[in-house]
Amino acid sequence: MKITIDEELCCASGLCTVKAGEVFDQRDEDGIAVLLAEAPAAEHHDAVREAAAVCPAAAIHIME
Amino acid sequence: MTGENVLDYPFDQPKALEAPREWAEARATCPVTHVRMPSGDVAGLVTGYDEARALLSDPRFNRRLDHEGAARTSTTEDGGMFNRENKALSQMMSEGHRRYRRLISPAFTVKKMEAWRPRIQQMTDELLDAMLAKGAPAELRAEFALPLPVRVICALLGASAEDQGRFAHWSDVLMTTTKYTQAEVDEARREFEAYASDLVEEKRANPREDLLSELTQISDSEDGRLSHAELISTVVGILVAGHETTSNQIVKMTALLLEDRQLYEAVIADPSLVPGAVEEALRLDPVGGLGIPRFISEDIEVGGEPVPAGTTLFVNLSAADRDERKFPDADRFDPCRPNAQQHLAFSAGPRFCIGQTLARVELQVVLDTFVRRLPELRLRDDPDALRIRTGVVATGLEELWVTW
Ligand code: SF4
Known about the structure:
By secondary structure, chain A is of the alpha+beta class.
């Protein structure tokens, strides 16, 4: 699995960090999501899919 | 728009906890339903989940209705809070919106809001202690649901708790659709902005560990990142949005869970259901109000139906959140619903509610505390007797009497 975040779309909700804190964080300067792991380990895949589904800005893209 | 039956909007709701039947009817008939506002103007109503989400995420359109020809939402001469000209706000809402959001977002990150959880727990316990000391029955809205978010927002902004009553009044007046006159609205706005300006000056002189002090630093950075006018609008916005909506949601969540008491008992038996129950209460908000306005400035299609430029659309989030195509068995309250959190109660897209983490933390703390401390909590009255507050934008219940 590979993930990308569209920073233009991200509205800094931080919901992805709630769903998958090992994979997503929020940048201090603007609250925009940053990836802690671009290709997360298998155990995080479900959480990452949930994060992408719940992202209110549809800013998380997953390539399986 | 002619020749068809235009429904009066917002819809009548004979039972406060039941969604108006027109939502489902509108969703089943066409993507955009024509409705008449209290002002007499006609607008389009959007009730489908996918259509709602697409519109909310479309950066071309915003909630400003101060264009010529936009539907007026209120009976005051200025047409209501969405129609008021406000230069700083206009800027924030349109071209400058992205810049503005990025400036204030760092103050609202999940980490910063979560750090407030212990304080919110403490305030919740104090208010509950006072309510229990007075004895049952209690009117939950006045004694608990209104004061809690106000206290939280005051602490967050570093405003004095003594000012709570004043800005509760101002925000009530500003959110009016039919309840107050133009003169009252103008006066409330003047007073509120003067108050916010004083508060900003005070934080500037004595910065502390609160959100407003943090925002003041951004506006003082002298690179013009956040203007004084924007800062004032931000303070007013946070005070208005942070108090009324969360209060209403506490009351509605409690009412929904107690109406079908098995739900409440399920959460008592398994407190890990608290976050799921909070999400379902947000999704199933039965009092949808007007919804979120969008002024359509160019010809588009919504769900395959053409919508001409100049149309005012109302995106009804609560109606969209009961779309069966997105949430099977949509009217059922299911704290284990896997996709509940994808509801639109906090909107979506670039204008997604910036206070949603704070609201979620508050609602979770409240429900968790209720099920722990008030296992005998019950509605005093028949749920069918509950009444909806009318004449204001943020809709909730008039009152909610409980016993324990
Ligand atoms: S959930 Fe989406 S909008 Fe929110 S911070 Fe993550 S990427 Fe950004």
